[in-house]
C-alpha cells in the first residue's frame, strides 16, 4: 500500500447487534480523540470503518460487497481508507487481508482500542491486523464518554461460555468477562452527565455479569442495577441479552423493586422443542423457560416479553417446529426476532447431518413470523388506552412530530411541543403494526 495523507474525517458503519453499536460509538470516540471528525451525512469520509457481524452467513458476506462498493465509488465519490472491525474481522481477518487488498486495517472487537496506532501505520502504507483478545485492557484505554444522547448503551459483560452449537459468538467474542462494578458506575455517571436518561446494560450474556460492590460483596446483575438506580438523574434502566440459565431470584425480584427498571425482557429461547434445544446445547427445556417467564410475570404483570428464534436447525422435524409455534402461542411475545438457521464455519452444528431444505426453512420462518406479528399487534392494541411516559429520542418525519419509546420499548410517535431528551406523558391512542400513536398529555 502507498503512504497517504492522514484522514481528516471518518464514518463508522455498524451492523448486527447492539454491542456492535456500542463498539462503533467507542471507535468513533477514539478517532475523534485522534483529531478526526465524523463525516457530515451525505459527504465522503476519508476513513470508513465497517463494524461487521458474523452471526449469520448473509451478514458476514455483506462486508465484501460493501468493500467493493466503497472502492468502486458507488457509496461515495472518492474511495476512502477502509478498516474492517467487529466479528468478521475477528473470525476471518487473514482472509479479508487476502481477499480485499483495499482494506488497510483489520481490528477485532477486543482490540479496537489500538485503532489509533494502526491508523498511524496505515498512513505510512503498512497494512495492520489486530485480533488479540485482552478484553479488559480495551475498556481501560478508551476515552471518556462525550456523546449527548437521552439513551445510551453501556457494555457490562462480554463474551460467552455457553457454546450453543450453532453460534459463533464464543469464538469471535471470547470467554465471558465482566467489567468491574466501580468502572461501570463511573461510566454510567458520565453518561448521565452528558445527557443520558436511559441506560441499556449490554452483554452477550448480560445476566451472567458478576462483580464486587464498593463494600466488597459479591453481586450479580441485580446488585448492579440497584446501585445504578441510585444515581441522580437515571430514569430508565434496561438490559440485554439474557440467557435463561443465568437468571437468578434477585434479578427477577428487581423487576418488582426497582422503579427505573423498565418492564421489558428479551430472553431468547430459539426453539420450543426439547430435542432441538438439547441438540442446540441450550441446557434449558421449553417448560423451564416458560416457568421462568411466569415468575417475571408474577412480579411485573405488565412485562413485555421478547425472544429470539431459529427455524430449520439441522434435523428439525415439522412436529418439532410446531412445538415452537405452540410455545409462541403460550407466551404471546410483545416483540421477537426470528431467523433461518445459518451454518457457521467452526461451530458443531455446521457439520451435523439432516440439513433442512431452504424452501422448508422459508415456509417455517413465514409461519412463525405470522404468529409473532399477530402477537405484536395484539400487544400494541391491548396498550391502547394506557397512559405512559415516553422518552423523546428524535423528530418524526413531519414537522411537529416526535418519536420515542414507551416503557415497554414500543416506538411511540405523537404531535405537539416537545424536545429531544425530554420525558413526556402520553395517552396511547392507536396501535399501528409495530409502533403506537400517542397523544401528548404533559411534559414531565
Ligand atoms: N443461524 C441463525 N441464527 C443464529 N443466531 C445465532 N447464531 C445463528 C445461526 N448460526 C440467532 C440466535 C441468537 C441471535 C442473536 O441470532 O437466535 O439469539
Ligand atoms: Fe451464542 Fe448461545 Fe452464547 Fe447466545 S448463549 S451468544 S446464542 S453461544
Automatic annotation (TrEMBL):
Domain of life assignment: Bacteria
Catalytic activity: N(6)-dimethylallyladenosine(37) in tRNA + (sulfur carrier)-SH + AH2 + 2 S-adenosyl-L-methionine = 2-methylsulfanyl-N(6)-dimethylallyladenosine(37) in tRNA + (sulfur carrier)-H + 5'-deoxyadenosine + L-methionine + A + S-adenosyl-L-homocysteine + 2 H(+)
Annotated binding of [4Fe-4S] cluster 2, by residue: 160, 164, 167
Residue span(s) of domain Radical SAM core: 146-378
Residues binding [4Fe-4S] cluster 1: 17, 53, 87
Cofactor binding note: Binds 2 [4Fe-4S] clusters. One cluster is coordinated with 3 cysteines and an exchangeable S-adenosyl-L-methionine.
Cofactor(s) demanded: [4Fe-4S] cluster
GO function term, MF aspect, one: metal ion binding
SMART domains, alphabetized: Elp3
Entry-linked InterPro entries: Elp3/MiaA/NifB-like_rSAM, Methylthiotransferase, Methylthiotransferase_CS, Methylthiotransferase_N, Methylthiotransferase_N_sf, MiaB_methiolase, rSAM, rSAM_horseshoe
Keyword tRNA processing among record annotations: yes
Domain MTTase N-terminal: 8-124
Broadest EC class assigned to this enzyme: transferase
Keywords: 4Fe-4S, Cytoplasm, Iron, Iron-sulfur, Metal-binding, S-adenosyl-L-methionine, Transferase, tRNA processing
Keyword Cytoplasm carried by entry: yes
Subcellular location(s) of the protein: Cytoplasm
Enzyme Commission code(s) on record: 2.8.4.3
Principal location class: cytoplasm
Family to which the UniProt record says this protein belongs: Belongs to the methylthiotransferase family. MiaB subfamily.
PANTHER family in alphabetical order: CDK5 REGULATORY SUBUNIT-ASSOCIATED PROTEIN 1 (PTHR43020), MITOCHONDRIAL TRNA METHYLTHIOTRANSFERASE CDK5RAP1 (PTHR43020:SF2)
Stated role: Catalyzes the methylthiolation of N6-(dimethylallyl)adenosine (i(6)A), leading to the formation of 2-methylthio-N6-(dimethylallyl)adenosine (ms(2)i(6)A) at position 37 in tRNAs that read codons beginning with uridine.
Name assigned to this protein: tRNA-2-methylthio-N(6)-dimethylallyladenosine synthase
Protein's organism: Erythrobacter insulae
Taxonomic lineage of the native organism: Bacteria, Pseudomonadati, Pseudomonadota, Alphaproteobacteria, Sphingomonadales
Amino acid at each position: 500500500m502507498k503512504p497517504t495523507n492522514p484522514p481528516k474525517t471518518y464514518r463508522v458503519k455498524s451492523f448486527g447487534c447492539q454491542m456492535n453499536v456500542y463498539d462503533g460509538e467507542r471507535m468513533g470516540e477514539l478517532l475523534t480523540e485522534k483529531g478526526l471528525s465524523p463525516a457530515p451525512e451525505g459527504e465522503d469520509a476519508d476513513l470508513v470503518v465497517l463494524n461487521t457481524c458474523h452471526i449469520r452467513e448473509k451478514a458476514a458476506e455483506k462486508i465484501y460487497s460493501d468493500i467493493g462498493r466503497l472502492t468502486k465509488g458507488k457509496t461515495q465519490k472518492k474511495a476512502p481508507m477502509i478498516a474492517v472491525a467487529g466479528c468478521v474481522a475477528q473470525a476471518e481477518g487473514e482472509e479479508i487481508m487476502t481477499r480485499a487488498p483495499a482494506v488497510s486495517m483489520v481490528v477485532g472487537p477486543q482490540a479496537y482500542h489500538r485503532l489509533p496506532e494502526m491508523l498511524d501505520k496505515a498512513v505510512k502504507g503498512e497494512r495492520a491486523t489486530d485480533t488479540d483478545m485482552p478484553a479488559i485492557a480495551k475498556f481501560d484505554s478508551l476515552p471518556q464518554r462525550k456523546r449527548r444522547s437521552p439513551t445510551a448503551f453501556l457494555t457490562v459483560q462480554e463474551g460467552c461460555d455457553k457454546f450453543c452449537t450453532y453460534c459463533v459468538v464464543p469464538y469471535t467474542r471470547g470467554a465471558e468477562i465482566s467489567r468491574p462494578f466501580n468502572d461501570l458506575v463511573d461510566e454510567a455517571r458520565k453518561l448521565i452527565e452528558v445527557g443520558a436518561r436511559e441506560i441499556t446494560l449490554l452483554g452477550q450474556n448480560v445476566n451472567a455479569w458478576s462483580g464486587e460492590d464498593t463494600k466488597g460483596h459479591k453481586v450479580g446483575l441485580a446488585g448492579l442495577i440497584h446501585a445504578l438506580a441510585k444515581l441522580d438523574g437515571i430514569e430508565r434502566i434496561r438490559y440485554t441479552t439474557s440467557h435463561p440459565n443465568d437468571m437468578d431470584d434477585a434479578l427477577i425480584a428487581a423487576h418488582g423493586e426497582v422503579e427505573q427498571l423498565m418492564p421489558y425482557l428479551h430472553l431468547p429461547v430459539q426453539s420450543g422443542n426439547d430435542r432441538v434445544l438439547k441438540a442446540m446445547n441450550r441446557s434449558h427445556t421449553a417448560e423451564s423457560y416458560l416457568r421462568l417467564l411466569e415468575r417475571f410475570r408474577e412480579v411485573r404483570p405488565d412485562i413485555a416479553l421478547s425472544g429470539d428464534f431459529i427455524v430449520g436447525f439441522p434435523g428439525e422435524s415439522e412436529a418439532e417446529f410446531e412445538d415452537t409455534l405452540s410455545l409462541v402461542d403460550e407466551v404471546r411475545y410483545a416483540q421477537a426476532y426470528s431467523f433461518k438457521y445459518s451454518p457457521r464455519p467452526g461451530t458443531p452444528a455446521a457439520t451435523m447431518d439432516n440439513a433442512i431444505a431452504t424452501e422448508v426453512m422459508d415456509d417455517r420462518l413465514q409461519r412463525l413470523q405470522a404468529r409473532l406479528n399477530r402477537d405484536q399487534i395484539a400487544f400494541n392494541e391491548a396498550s391502547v388506552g394506557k397512559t405512559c411516559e415516553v422518552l423523546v429520542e428524535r423528530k418524526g418525519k413531519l414537522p411537529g412530530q416526535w418519536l420515542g419509546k414507551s416503557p415497554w420499548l414500543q416506538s411511540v410517535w405523537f404531535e405537539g411541543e416537545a424536545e429531544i431528551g425530554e420525558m413526556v406523558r402520553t395517552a396511547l391512542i392507536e396501535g399501528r403494526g409495530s409502533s403506537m400513536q400517542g397523544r401528548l398529555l404533559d411534559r414531565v
